[in-house]
Amino acid sequence: MKNSLRVHAALFLVSVIYAANYSLSKDVMPDYMGPFGIVTLRIVGAALFFGIVSRLVAPQDRILGRADTIRAVLCGIIGIGGNQLLFFSGLNYTSPINASLLQTIAPIVVVIASAILLSEKITLLRVLGIMLGGIGAATVILSRDAGGLVYPNATLGNIFILLNATAFGVYLVLVTPLMRKYHAFTVLARIFLVGAFVAVPFGWQGVLAADYSRFPLYIWAEIVYMVVFLTIIAYLLNNWALKYASPALLGVYIYLQPILAVLIAVSLGKDHFTWARALQAALIFGGVFLVSRKPKDVAVAPDDAIPLEPVQD
């Protein structure tokens, strides 16, 4: 019971951390720092942290072999560098609510990627879920509501967020074998190092060009939040909770994150919620629910399952 409460607390805190980021990032971008600069600070900070910690907790653990090395490099390019560059670029252009809704489709991408890369079975129910989620995502991307007055490039931002969710879904499929074979910090140190090589060429000028002397205290606090809480603490809590959480419980928190993002965005005056967005959310949530159902005629052991975990930005 005590451990169950800790799992719920960890997953809820992770959801709050991610949900708040959709609104807090809008304070920093683009007036104080561009999206690529923020990504560079996040990834370089995390690479240093995980690199040091991995040597302390698993000093003898190394990623060995050509296949695992290539997989780790792909994870760093797709899941860390590419994923975060796409996310912050998209969030810079679109609204917090649209971004949070579109990111929810990552479990659908996991199922599609698992079918292509791992030959996992796709049932008729999952096909229906993919179609339902796709329709919901398309309506978000193509919608023209009042938010367009505030975000004139929202369609481009929505496409970036969709690509971000796709990259993260593919990353989950690629990284799972590494996480089972090596210590988590060993994997994280390697993929964040690769991610840093991807992000720095895009963001180093943004980091150097920022006028730090005019940053108010709350902007400094939000940057620290994105580097420390969003990138490091959220992952550590999520990784610990995934060892004990059931797929059904993870599904609940997949749906909770955009709900919290909506509440935070509306309460801070960063966005507005409409009935059209409620319908879009229902379509996407319905699609995610259907694809998350395991085929009844296929017995899947826990160690063989690809986790449909909450989205990490």
Count up the helices: 12
**Number of domains as seen in the coordinates:** 1
Global shape: globular
The share of residues in helices is over 70%
Structural class, from secondary structure content? mainly alpha
- Content of β-strand: under 5%
What integer value in Å does the Rg equal?
Answer: 19 Å
End-to-end span in angstroms? 30 Å
Contiguous uncertain segments of 5+ residues: 298-308
Largest sheet: none
Q: Give, in order, the helices and strands.
A: HHHHHHHHHHHH
Annotation, overall tally of beta strands: 0
The average pLDDT value, as a whole number, equals 83
Describe the structure.
It is a single chain. With 313 residues, the protein is an all-alpha fold. The chain has one domain (1-292). The protein has twelve helices and no strands. It has helices at residues 2-28, 35-57, 66-93, 96-103, 106-118, 124-142, 147-150, 154-181, 184-209, 217-242, 247-267, 275-291. Helix 1 runs antiparallel to helix 10, helix 4 packs antiparallel against helix 11 and helix 4 runs parallel beside helix 12. It is globular. The two termini are 30 Å apart.
SSE diagram, text form:
Blueprint: H1 2-28, H2 35-57, H3 66-93, H4 96-103, H5 106-118, H6 124-142, H7 147-150, H8 154-181, H9 184-209, H10 217-242, H11 247-267, H12 275-291
Domain EamA: 10-141, 156-292
Membrane topology: Multi-pass membrane protein
Protein name: DMT family transporter
In short:
This protein has 313 residues and is mainly α. The chain has helices spanning 2-28, 35-57, 66-93, 96-103, 106-118, 124-142, 147-150, 154-181, 184-209, 217-242, 247-267, 275-291.
